[in-house]
Design a protein that fits this description.
homodimer; mainly alpha; 2 domains; DNA-binding
Chain lengths: 187, 187
DNA sequence: ATTATTTCTAAACAATCGTTTAGTTTTGGG
DNA sequence: CCCAAAACTAAACGATTGTTTAGAAATAAT
């Protein structure tokens, strides 16, 4: 019927994701996105509506990308050890690529902690809730633990993961690894 | 010789500090600062040069304000327990005032982690270095610990403090307190 | 080949950013 | 009293933000 797009939408979303990941939502301008994605502003708006639409699509893409880490956590059966491996897996991308800073979801959670964008906020909460219930499930494998202990430890792990993502933005690999080891010494 | 200022500089800096604390540097606009400080843009520029000057003055004010927490940590002699109390003291302001989000220095550290503003960055590094050496000093009071263990634990505590400041932005008092207790279980 | 439809280029949009400037008001010293 | 110096008000600055629009280029179906 008409002309065909010269770009692949998932490809340009991935490039946008990396930019948001590195700089955060507000700091990333449409101008930067244009350059990084290699397409015109018009095309961005045609494909994703607006900046927020592109951002939400980037987060979706991010979640899909780290889904294999989650799957590994879900499918294994070694209790706390699985969580520890999950922590290591979560930061591994930070050491392979200098352009990556922490966890995109956690970064966004921090950036919008006092904002009131309901759509973005909901994305964050569901992510965190899923993580927490996974921790509870893993910890429950140790039948000697009381329900109260499990909830406390799950909370601890969630905050520790939150802190890990923050630390991964500025600290070295060695510091991060020492940190993870220490976290699991107390459990 | 001439007219006198109608405002007190330290008073307006304190108000600016709270705004930066809550929103971060970039998100806080001169317009918001005008309103919060109760003075005109012209007066802000006359007193502090520019936005960055006002921000640096806000950080100075922040450091002076939490200096008593540092002093308490320095002057006491109960080793690790002092550090634990320091952690509690560090987040206490978050529970008294809803307008406060985490630690201003840590927030700034995160916001500018990949920026290259040398002045602001140096402010952050000196703060973190001071904290680390204080941790080392406290941990060294336990003579049974090897130097390697001390350095590892100091690193852990620094990252934990970093994570705590991040968590204090979004988590509840109970979650924070559980987190602190868990941190010190492993030491 | 023509036509309808969609993509693209490029310019412009209003709003806001940090900053500056011109002009008025206040005030203390001669 | 008067004048000079500083502090105020308020408007404007150029640059950049996210978003929209007008028109040219391209393509599939008739």
């Amino acid at each position: 019927m008409a002309r065909k797009k010269k770009y692949n939408e998932t490809e340009v979303v991935e490039k946008a994701m990396h930019l948001f990941w590195k700089n955060g939502y507000e700091t990333t301008s449409m101008q930067m996105l244009e350059k990084e994605m290699g397409i015109n502003k018009f095309s961005i708006y045609a494909s994703f509506g607006n900046k927020q639409g592109l951002f939400l699509e980037s987060i979706k893409h991010y979640k899909a990308q780290i889904n294999n880490i989650f799957k590994k956590l879900e499918e294994s059966n070694n209790g706390i050890l699985d969580i520890k491996n999950f922590f290591y897996d979560s930061v591994s991308s930070n050491f392979n690529d200098d352009n990556i800073k922490g966890c995109l979801v956690t970064n966004t959670y921090n950036e919008f902690s006092d904002s009131d964008d309901p759509i973005i906020k909901e994305q964050m909460i569901t992510f965190m809730d899923k993580l927490k219930s996974l921790f509870v499930e893993k910890l429950s494998m140790d039948t000697s633990k009381s329900e109260e202990t499990i909830l406390k430890q799950a909370n601890f792990l969630l905050l520790a993961k939150h802190g890990l993502a923050a630390a991964a933005r500025v600290n070295s690999k060695e510091e991060i690894e020492d940190y993870i080891e220490m976290i699991f010494k107390s459990l």
